[in-house]
Amino acid sequence: MLNAADFPNDLDTLKAMLAAAEARDQRKQERIDRLEVLVAAFKQAMFGRKSEKIDPDQFELALEDIETAIAAIHAEDEAVDPAKTRSAKPRNANRGSLPKHLLRVEELIEPKVSVCGCGGDLHQIGEDVSERRDVIPAQFRVIVTHRPKYGCRSCSNGVVQAPAPARLIPRGMPTEATVADVLVSKYADHLPLYRQAQIYSRQGIDLDRSTLAAWVGKAAYELKPVFTALIADLKRSTKLFMPSRLIVLQSPAG
Q1: pLDDT at 85 over 70
Q2: Calpha distance 52→39 (Å, rounded)
């Protein structure tokens, strides 16, 4: 927090500081107003009439907006007055854990000086170690398959060549891993095909949504025996426990 002694004597500089402070307050008030609107929407969705209630998934979206706005306000406060932020009570935030199985990339940062100011040599007496979560964005690659052809110089028995590997999509370019990624993104992560096509486009790969849909349809056909086997296995039990209800199936004997 600034004291009276910290203010400059120049009037123009004081006006500039005041204008900057008013602009910061205005931006903060706009964010606060946005939060109030979101909170009101939450209350309406939770306590309003049944016809006014929204889908539960919308709660997650609104909550993300609120938490993002709060984080933006905290970040601005930290930039304006770091000392005040350090003295404030730390926020209770779940930053996640770093599992042991993740690849560790060691980084060594040495000081710029190797000799003490007195002229003596420096020697290591300890170190501080910190870990940060890093990510390598998804990378697309091309599998280039070479199948050499061999012939005999002593006869004419024909050409010898390894057979081409089977493909999930006949004469198609995607590998099985590519199709699996599309399926997981669509059904597990709820990422529509048109958005996946946009992600491919950012990598310079132009794919129509209809092409991705054809991949999904082909995969569904190939996975149908697995689905049928799973259903048959489930039906061998007399009871199926579900998150919201109990389903009783007819026993095999009856």
Answers
A1: no
A2: 15
Which residues pair with residue 160 across a beta bridge?
A: 150
List the domain boundaries for the chain.
Answer: 16-82, 173-247
Distance CA 151, CA 233 (A): 51
* pTM for this model (two decimals): 0.61
Cα–Cα distances in angstroms (integers) from residue 42 to residues 45, 61, 73, 92, 101, in the given order: 5, 11, 20, 22, 39
Strands 239-241 vs 159-161: parallel, antiparallel or unpaired: unpaired
Q: What DSSP letter does each residue of the chain carry, written as one string?
A: ---GGGS-S-HHHHHHHHHHHHHHHHHHHHHHHHHHHHHHHHHHHHHS-GGGPPPHHHHHHHHHHHHHHHHHHHHHHHHH-HHHHHHSPPP--------TTSPP-------S--B-TTSPBP--------------------------EEE-SS----EEEPPPPP-SSTT-S--HHHHHHHHIIIIIS---HHHHHHHHHHTT----HHHHHHHHHHHHHHHHHHHHHHHHHHHTSSEEE-SS-EEEPPPTT-
Residue 252 predicted with pLDDT over 80: no
Whether 178 has a pLDDT exceeding 80, the answer reads yes
User: 146, 212, 124: which is closest to 173 by C-alpha?
Assistant: 212
- Integer Cα distance of 73 and 40 in angstroms: 19
Cα 204 to Cα 63, 140, 208, 211, 213, distances in angstroms: 34, 10, 13, 16, 19
**Neighbour count for residue 184 (Cβ, 10 Å):** 11
| Long-range contacts, 5-10 (Cβ 8 Å, 24+) | none
CA–CA gap between residue 74 and residue 41 (Å, rounded):
23
